Automatic annotation (TrEMBL), chain A:
Organism lineage string: Bacteria, Pseudomonadati, Pseudomonadota, Alphaproteobacteria, Hyphomicrobiales
Record NCBIfam families: dha_pts
Record field: catalytic activity: dihydroxyacetone + phosphoenolpyruvate = dihydroxyacetone phosphate + pyruvate
Species the sequence originates in: Rhizobium loti
Stated role: Component of the dihydroxyacetone kinase complex, which is responsible for the phosphoenolpyruvate (PEP)-dependent phosphorylation of dihydroxyacetone. DhaM serves as the phosphoryl donor. Is phosphorylated by phosphoenolpyruvate in an EI- and HPr-dependent reaction, and a phosphorelay system on histidine residues finally leads to phosphoryl transfer to DhaL and dihydroxyacetone.
Protein's name according to its UniProt entry: phosphoenolpyruvate--glycerone phosphotransferase
EC primary class: transferase
Keyword Transferase listed: yes
Kinase in keyword set: yes
EC nos: 2.7.1.121
SUPFAM superfamilies in the record: PTS system fructose IIA component-like
Matches recorded under Gene3D superfamilies: Phosphotransferase system, mannose-type IIA component
UniProtKB/TrEMBL annotation, chain B:
Gene Ontology CC annotations of this record: cytosol
NCBIfam families from the UniProt entry: dha_L_ycgS
Keyword match Transferase: yes
The organism's place on the tree of life at top rank: Bacteria
GO terms, biological process: glycerol catabolic process
Record PANTHER family: TRIOKINASE/FMN CYCLASE, TRIOKINASE_FMN CYCLASE
Gene Ontology MF terms in the entry: glycerone kinase activity
Protein name, UniProt field: Dihydroxyacetone kinase, L subunit
Lineage of the species this protein comes from: Bacteria, Pseudomonadati, Pseudomonadota, Alphaproteobacteria, Hyphomicrobiales
Keywords: Kinase, Transferase
DhaL domain residues: 4-194
Pfam families linked to this entry: Dak2
Length: 129, 200
């Protein structure tokens, strides 16, 4: 698929999966989509390995936008991008946006064939700066 | 600088974290999410399981391997933060470091941790221990002096107000508790200092 991919990273697998459900229902299947949540040991948290897996799953040559919830999700997502390394890391951006609204808006933009830069800009418009 | 027995140092670090895991968890329960002790213990046990293989590598590669393992196994926000410390150290250090090289590499590693956590000194984090340790390295302090400086620096996070991480949600209520990451950093510094001091 040539559309930008969307990855949803929450501390809670329920939040991540629910957000992905909303994206699927509101935007459809035109966008590569993956989610992950939880610390990998049954608790709340985020996990670098799972985030790397989700990026692989939603991978698109057009790039991947990641939507996160609280601080640790951002730190772990940035770590995952760094560990994936070049050249793919240049096409992955962690968005500064609310996770649910950001995911829906970014996916909507992506479904129309927008570039990674445009997708991320759309998500960022949701954040008070 | 004395030759480093990395396998023994890894075992010592893992023992130290395990022995203090309950204290770290209690500190984290006060102002964080209460998983720091368990997370660190799991991560260092995972490193220990591969200590032989890691210590057979040249020091820079060994440190990078330890960092990667910590990133993948510690979880929480501590995994990327402690992982980045070792990854960056591995990138900067030479195979047979002298004190100057160690000090410079340590300084770069602190910058990498600060960038990863988007944090700086004085925000009640592990940086508040790492920076005084770097200063002490620069000033030529002995290994055991450095261990004491690290402990004092962890204690000094008690009156600070958390500005990063989950503890920051508590605002003023974070004052009066030691930062768990600062404490685990001080424990690790003491372990390394003891090991280097012993072989010096």
């Amino acid at each position: 698929m040539s559309n930008v991919g969307i990855v949803i990273v929450s501390h809670s697998p329920l939040v991540a999966e629910g957000t992905a459900d909303m994206v699927r229902q509101m935007v459809g299947d035109e966008v590569p989509l993956a989610w992950c949540g939880g610390n990998g040991h049954g608790g709340l948290g985020t996990n670098v390995e799972a985030i790397m897996g989700a990026i692989d799953k939603a991978w698109s040559e057009a790039g991947v936008a990641i939507l996160v919830d609280l601080g640790g999700a951002e730190t772990n997502s940035e770590m995952a991008v760094e560990m994936i390394g070049e050249p793919r890391s240049h096409k992955i951006i962690v968005c500064n946006a609310p996770i649910v609204e950001g995911a829906v808006m970014a996916a909507t933009e992506a479904s129309g064939g927008a570039s990674l830069r445009e997708v991320v800009a759309t998500a960022h418009e949701l954040s008070p700066s | 600088m004395a030759a480093l027995n990395l396998a023994r140092l890894i075992a010592a670090a893992s023992d130290t974290i395990a022995a203090n895991a309950e204290e770290l968890t209690a500190l984290d329960q006060a102002i964080g999410d209460g998983d720091h002790g368990l997370n660190m213990k799991r991560g260092f046990e995972a490193v220990r399981a591969e200590a032989e293989a890691f210590s057979a590598k040249p020091l820079p590669d060994a440190l990078k391997a330890i960092g990667t393992k910590l990133v993948m196994t510690v979880g929480g926000a501590s995994g990327p933060l402690f992982g980045t410390l070792f990854l960056a150290l591995g990138k900067e250090i030479s195979a047979k470091p002298d004190r100057a090289n160690l000090t410079a590499a340590f300084g770069k590693a602190i910058e990498a941790v600060a960038a990863r956590g988007k944090s700086q000194i004085g925000q009640k984090t592990m940086l508040d221990v790492l920076q005084p340790v770097h200063d002490a390295l620069l000033q030529g302090k002995t290994a055991l002096e450095i261990a004491d400086i690290a402990d004092a620096a962890a204690d000094a996070t008690v009156p600070m107000k958390a500005l990063r991480g989950r503890a920051s949600f508590l605002g003023d209520r974070s004052i009066g508790h030691m930062d768990a990451g600062a404490r685990s950093t001080a424990l690790l510094v003491r372990t390394v200092a003891h090991s280097l001091g012993e072989s010096a």
